[in-house]
Specification:
globular, Aconitase, domain 4, binds alpha-methylisocitric acid, seven-stranded mixed barrel, 21 helices, 3 domains, Aconitase, domain 3, six-stranded mixed β-sheet, binds iron/sulfur cluster
């Protein structure tokens, strides 16, 4: 039978189940990655699992998010991750080496292999033909311990690319176009597999921009085939031995198909505060810009920044604009330094930041009050920049650089520049892995250093027969994990300190939520559609767990957040009749009886005692997930299974 790229990779890695959309499958995981903001929790969970050796072929721990170090907390976390990585035989990418997804793409990705990462943008590696999935921390810990990952087989969407991008239109515009068409929830339960003659016109970093931001569709992942361009990229990274050709067979059957004609695209921008509020840049002409930031795992590659340097060459940025640039990796920065592009950027007035996530996760460079910020990033959720009143627009590096010069949102096609020239991919990248610490032989003897910032994390408890409590908040549609567990520079250092974080849970929606949750000793959260979209941060489940949240009732959930709730023993329930959502009011009293047996059935009756109504709720979970909920979380279940084995 002719197969898609996804079916080929999953087929090769299938440990259990059938590749039928909607069925639970188990796949073998070749590699994992973690970053520091989720990593501390992952490694605490790995330690709690009690294994002494990881089962993946290669696992890498990156430090890229929490690099501001405005107190000892970040440095303490780095030290913990460095030592715990050594103890378990995990590669460690030191702070300064770059953003996990960019470095992984350059130095570790292998076409046809599987990667599970504790970061929602792990699909970046799909640009090279890897099946790369973002997941919550405990899923990644279990994948390291057991070498496997359980998930629901998604539908496969063929994205047929035809034509070639016109000058000044970029890979960012392809994914923005898809976001415009599909929306931030349209990709849930799907994998986007790119195909068609347009693929050959895209470099690996361009493909990676697209698969990276596929996360914003809510998709399980996105992937490109691997071809000659993939080979050339790997060869230039001195890794040609890692190449493996993987293409869809002629006649492969997809569940859906979308076509994008690259030649018809124009520069696009995602307006505040959602990555799918996409309009042509030309329609925003004249919008005054206060800040431009270029970087993040979406657009910080060598090609992106050389293009920016060419635009800025011999020019000065507008007087009222602050331009910050964060190269994606040490490799990118070093190459820009060698070829002179770095000097060009600096001379134009750019503020060069370290190779890290930086402003993308609110670590510095917050815009002014009511400021307009153009960013080459992937998320523009309200408040994420650190300035609640700021308006963040997501654009390509081309649009960002040109607008930094004019001071107004500008379509680069209208800007009088020298001729557009293609950016050639380097024949050889500057490769030097001296900032990656490889595992040692005597790793069992390594001592793990735990600073005072590492606090124990809450564990769910096995389900009780009855749950009763109040609706502590009723939220609307598309609530992001940045709403549930905000992560500005002030809070990100406390990712290993759940009690501290609990005072900020959902405060972007209602500043009294934490107080109310504590006063009522927990209860329920009610949300609208696509609840929990965005990041993979497990903290958006761990913190509610700490606050005593027993169940979240919503119209629908984002994939990773739903899994995180289950993995921490919080029940994610979907309104069978969405109208019931309208009936609920904050502080209504809810009761669920015979909880374990209702969970097993998957249909749960929730009594609204205040309104004297009963809602039928669906638990869209696999058998294993129901077992996880009953045991109060994945860690409990995994340990229970290990203990009964002995
Ligand atoms: C993000 O882009 O929101 C993050 C920060 O990278 C998160 C991970 C986290 O919250 O630590 C993600 O995308 O998963
Ligand atoms: Fe870092 Fe931003 Fe990428 Fe998240 S989206 S990994 S914060 S650069």
């Amino acid at each position: 039978m002719p197969l898609t790229v996804v079916q080929k990779i999953i087929g090769k890695h299938l440990a259990k189940g059938k590749m039928i959309p909607g069925e639970e499958i188990i796949i073998k995981i070749d590699q994992t990655l973690t970053q520091d903001a989720t990593g501390t929790m992952v490694y605490l969970q790995l330690e709690a699992l009690g294994v002494n050796k990881i089962k993946t072929k290669k696992s890498v721990a990156y430090i890229d998010h929490n690099t501001l170090q405005s107190g000892p907390e970040n440095a303490d976390d780095h030290l913990y991750i460095r030592t715990v990585a050594k103890k378990y035989g995990i590669y460690f990418s030191r702070p300064g080496n770059g953003i996990c997804h960019q470095v992984h793409l350059e130095r570790f990705t292998i076409p046809g292999w599987t990667l599970l990462g504790s970061d929602s943008h792990t699909p970046t590696a799909g640009g090279i033909g890897m099946l790369a999935i973002g997941a919550g921390g405990v899923d990644v810990a279990v994948a390291m311990a057991q070498g496997e990952y359980h998930f629901t087989m998604p539908k496969i969407v063929r994205v047929n690319l035809i034509g070639k991008l016109n000058p000044w239109v970029s890979a960012k515009d392809i994914i923005l176009e898809l976001l415009k068409r599909v929306s931030v929830k349209g990709g849930v339960g799907k994998i986007f597999e790119y195909a068609g003659e347009g693929v050959k016109n895209l470099s690996i970093p361009q493909r990676a921009t697209i698969t990276n931001m596929g996360a914003e569709l809510g998709a399980t992942t996105s992937i490109f085939p691997s071809d000659e361009i993939t080979f050339n990229f790997l060869k230039a990274q001195k890794r040609e031995k890692d190449f493996f050709e993987i293409k869809a067979d002629d006649g492969a059957i997809y569940d859906e198909e979308i076509e994008i004609n690259l030649s018809q695209l124009e520069p696009l921008a995602a307006c505040p505060h959602s990555p799918d509020k996409v309009v042509p840049v030309s329609s925003l002409k004249g919008l005054k810009v206060n800040q431009v930031v270029i970087g993040s795992c979406t657009n910080s590659s060598y090609g992106d920044l050389v293009r920016v340097a060419r635009i800025l060459e011999d020019k000065t940025i507008a007087e009222h604009v602050s331009l910050a640039i964060a190269p994606g990796s040490k490799q990118v920065l070093a190459m820009l330094a060698q070829n002179g592009a770095l000097a060009t950027l600096i001379m134009s007035g750019a503020r060069i930041l370290e190779c890290a996530c930086g402003p993308c996760i609110g670590m510095g460079q917050s815009p002014p009050t009511n400021g307009v910020s153009l960013r080459t990033f992937n998320r523009n959720f309200k408040g994420r920049s650190g300035t609640i009143s700021a308006k963040v627009y997501l654009v390509s590096p081309e649009v960002a650089a040109v607008s930094a010069l004019t001071g107004f949102l500008t379509d680069p096609r209208e800007f009088q520049l020298k001729d557009y020239t293609e950016i050639e991919m380097p024949k050889t990248f500057l490769t030097n892995d001296n900032m990656i610490i490889a595992p040692v032989n005597n790793y069992e003897e390594v001592e793990v250093v735990r600073g005072p910032n590492i606090k124990p994390f809450p564990l769910g408890k096995p389900l009780l027969p009855k749950i009763q409590g109040k609706v502590l908040i009723k939220a609307g549609d598309n609530i992001t994990t940045d709403h549930i567990m905000p992560s500005p520079a002030k809070l990100l250092p406390y990712r290993s300190n759940i009690p501290y974080l609990s005072d900020y849970c959902l405060t972007l929606c209602d500043e009294n939520f934490p107080k109310r949750a504590k006063a009522n000793k927990g209860g329920f959260i009610v949300g609208g559609a696509n609840y929990g979209q965005g990041s993979s941060r497990e903290h958006a489940a761990l913190v509610p767990l700490y606050l005593g949240i027993k169940a979240v009732l919503a119209k629908s959930f984002a994939r990773i957040h739903q899994a995180n709730l289950v993995n921490n023993g919080i029940i994610p329930l979907i309104f069978k009749n969405p109208e019931d959502y309208n009936n609920v009011k904050e502080m209504d009293e809810f009761l669920i009886e015979d909880v374990p047996s209702q969970v097993k059935k998957g249909i749960i009756k929730v009594k609204n005692i205040t309104k004297n109504r009963e809602y039928e709720m669906l638990l869209n979970s696999t058998l294993r997930q129901k077992e996880i909920i009953i045991q109060g979380g994945l860690l409990n279940l995994t340990r229970l299974k290990e203990n009964t084995k002995e």
